[in-house]
Specification:
disordered N terminus, mainly alpha, two-stranded antiparallel ribbon, Glycosyltransferase, 2 domains, two-stranded antiparallel sheet, 18 helices
Length: about 450
C-alpha cells in the first residue's frame, strides 16, 4: 500500500482472505465422492471419483480448521477405516496405502491420516480408523538411522521423516522414537542450516520450511541457534512472488520393499510428492520465535490470494488450471488459516498506545522511534501538512515581515503597522484556540497512529 508516509507497505484485506477460504470450502464440498468400498472422500486430483486416504484426511482437516460441520464426516471416517491395512506383519498392519502403492501402506499416506486422527480426535468416534495401530505402524517403519522412507528399509527422506513425526506427535507426543527422528533431521541439515530432499542434497525452501514446522510442533520450546539460523536462511531465500518452489516443484523417487524371508527387493513403483513452497514458507515464518516477518509474510499471502482461481482452486504445479489439486488447496488454506490465528504480540515486544490505535514494536525494533519504522513522508507532503497546521502562524509572520519592510522604507507608519497587525493576531488566536480544543497530539505521533494497523 502506498500512502502519505512514502514507503510501500504490505497489507492484508481480511475480507478477501475469508472469501478465499469460503471458495476453497465450496470446492471441497462439490468434489466429495462416494467409494464403492464404503464411505467416501477425495482424491488429490479433485475431479477424480476415486477417493484416496491421504486426500480424504487432508479434506477433513481443512473443514475442521475452518470450523465447518461436515455432513459426510462419518462416511469419510468409514472410508479410512476400510482402507486401513490389516495384517499379521507389524510392518504392514495399521498403515494406509496411496492409490498408486499397490495396496502397500506407506508413510506418505499413513503420516497424514495419523495426523488427522490426532488433531480431530477421531479415535473417540465409533467406527473410525484405529489410532493405536496407526501409531504402531509409524514406529515399526522407522529406519535404524532415525529417519523414515516410504516404508522401513527405504532410504530416509526429509519430507517423509517430517510427515511421520507430525503424525506421531499428534497421536502420542511422548513416543520414544520421536527424539530419534528429530536427531536424524538435525544431522541431515546442510552447513547453511537448511535442508534438501535427502541428506547432502541442495537445500530448498520447501524442505527447510517443513522441517521448521515439524520442529516447532514436536519441540515448541526448541529455539537453539541452528533453528534461528534456519529461519534466517528461509527468510532470505523465500520467493514471495511464486506459489511453488522452483527447486522442489515435485519430488519423485522409486520405492522398493523386501518381504519376510525374501532375498531380493520387490519394486513397488515410483511415488511423487507435490510441493507448494510459498505457503509452506508462510506457515514456517509465522512461527519464528523472534518475529513474524510481517513484510515477507504479507507479500507472500497476497500472492496466495491472487493465485486462487475461479471455483476455489489454485494453479497446479504445471501452471495449468485444468485439474484442481488438493495439495494446492491444502497448503494455501493452511497459510491463510495460520495468518488468521497468528499472535500479534510476542514476548519482548513493546506496545505503544496512540489515540485510537495500539502500535506493536517487535523486540528487535523496540529501541527505534516510530517515525523510523513507518518512514518519513515525502517533502511535498510534509510541506502541505505544515501549511495546513500552521497557516495562521505563517500568515502572521508574513504580515510582520512585510510591515517591517514597509516601515523601514517609509511606505508605512508605525500607526499603520499596529492597526494592520490586529487581523493576523486575531487569526493566530483562533488557530491556537481550535488546536487546544481538539487536543492535537505532537506531530511525530500522528503518522504512526494513523498507520499502526499496518504493523
Amino acid at each position: 500500500m502506498k500512502d502519505d508516509f512514502g514507503p510501500t507497505m504490505a497489507q492484508i484485506d481480511l475480507a478477501r482472505l475469508y472469501d478465499s477460504l469460503r471458495h476453497a470450502l465450496g470446492l471441497l464440498r462439490r468434489t466429495y465422492s462416494s467409494s464403492p468400498d464404503g464411505g467416501g472422500g477425495w482424491y488429490h486430483q479433485l475431479e477424480s471419483p476415486n477417493p484416496g486416504a491421504t486426500a480424504t484426511a487432508l479434506g477433513l482437516m481443512i473443514l475442521r480448521d475452518c470450523h465447518e460441520d461436515y455432513e459426510h464426516l462419518h462416511d469419510a471416517l468409514t472410508f479410512l477405516r476400510v482402507r486401513q491395512v490389516e495384517s499379521n506383519d507389524p510392518r504392514l498392519d495399521g498403515g494406509w496405502a496411496t492409490n498408486t502403492s499397490f495396496g502397500r501402506p506407506v508413510t506418505e499416506a499413513t503420516g497424514w491420516v495419523a495426523r488427522m486422527i490426532g488433531t480431530l480426535r477421531t479415535d473417540l468416534v465409533a467406527g473410525g480408523p484405529d489410532a493405536r495401530r496407526a501409531e504402531r505402524w509409524l514406529a515399526e517403519n522407522q529406519n535404524n538411522d532415525g529417519g523414515w522412507g516410504s516404508l522401513k528399509g527405504c532410504p530416509s527422506r526429509v519430507w517423509l521423516t517430517c510427515l511421520a513425526l507430525r503424525g506421531l506427535v499428534q497421536l502420542n507426543p511422548y513416543h520414544p522414537v520421536i527424539d530419534h527422528g528429530l536427531d536424524w533431521l538435525m544431522r541431515s541439515r546442510r552447513e547453511t542450516y537448511a535442508w534438501g530432499e535427502v541428506p547432502g542434497a541442495p537445500p530448498t525452501v520447501t524442505h527447510t520450511a517443513f522441517v521448521l514446522l515439524t520442529v516447532t510442533e514436536v519441540r515448541p520450546k526448541l529455539h537453539d541457534d541452528w533453528v534461528l539460523r534456519a529461519y534466517d536462511w528461509l527468510s532470505k531465500h523465500l520467493d514471495v512472488a511464486s506459489l511453488d518452489d522452483r527447486a522442489a516443484r515435485m519430488e519423485t523417487y522409486s520405492v522398493a520393499y523386501t518381504d519376510h524371508g525374501a532375498k531380493t527387493s520387490t519394486a513397488a513403483g515410483r511415488l511423487a510428492l507435490w510441493h507448494y513452497g510459498l505457503p509452506v514458507g508462510i506457515c514456517a515464518l509465522l512461527r519464528d520465535p523472534r518475529s513474524p516477518h510481517t513484510d515477507l509474510v504479507y507479500q507472500a499471502v497476497n500472492t496466495v490470494l491472487d493465485g486462487q482461481l475461479d471455483g476455489g482452486q489454485w494453479p497446479t504445479l504445471s501452471g495449468s488450471p485444468g485439474i484442481s489439486s488438493l495439495w494446492g488447496v491444502w497448503w494455501c488454506t493452511q497459510a491463510l488459516l495460520d495468518l488468521r490465528r497468528a499472535p500479534l504480540v510476542r514476548p519482548g515486544d513493546l506496545l505503544v498506545g496512540c489515540p485510537g490505535a495500539i502500535v506493536v514494536k517487535s523486540a528487535e525494533m523496540r529501541s527505534q522511534p516510530l517515525s523510523a519504522l513507518v518512514g518519513r513522508p515525502p517533502q511535498i507532503i510534509r510541506l502541505r501538512r505544515l501549511l495546513v497546521r500552521h497557516w495562521a502562524t505563517l500568515l502572521l509572520g508574513s504580515f510582520v515581515v512585510v510591515a517591517i519592510v514597509g516601515v523601514a522604507t517609509n511606505k508605512l507608519s508605525w500607526q499603520d503597522f499596529a492597526v494592520g497587525m490586529i487581523f493576523p493576531l486575531g487569526l493566530f488566536g483562533v488557530q491556537e484556540y481550535r488546536g487546544r480544543r481538539s487536543g492535537r497530539q505532537p506531530e511525530e505521533v500522528s503518522p504512526s497512529s494513523s498507520n499502526s494497523h499496518q504493523r
